[in-house]
């Protein structure tokens, strides 16, 4: 599922990759019209940088 994939990527990736991953998850959610959820991931990505 999407949640399991997100958890795997965020928990098993190098710290440097987290902002990139979170930003891309945000982009996918944005393109799917899930604006509020996308914003959460954009904020997480921004905090990681």
What does this structure look like?
The protein has helices spanning 2-11, 15-31, 35-48. It is mostly helical. It has one domain (2-48). Helix 2 (15-31) packs antiparallel against helix 3 (35-48). The N and C termini lie far apart (27 Å).
Work out the radius of gyration: 10 Å
Instruction: Return the string of H and E elements.
Output: HHH
Number of domains: 1
Largest sheet: none
- Could you say which overall geometry the principal axes of the C-alpha atoms support? globular
Extract low-pLDDT stretches: none
Helicity, as a percent range: over 70%
- According to DSSP, the number of beta strands is 0
- Helix segment tally: 3
The N- to C-terminal Cα distance equals 27 Å
| Mean of all residue-level pLDDT scores | 83
Quote the beta fraction. Answer: under 5%
User: Structural class of the secondary structure composition?
Assistant: mainly alpha
Helix/strand layout:
Elements: H1 2-11, H2 15-31, H3 35-48
Tell me briefly what this model is:
The protein has 49 residues and is mainly α. The chain has helices spanning 2-11, 15-31, 35-48. The protein has one domain (2-48).
List keywords for this structure.
84% helix, single chain, 3 helices, mainly alpha, 49 residues
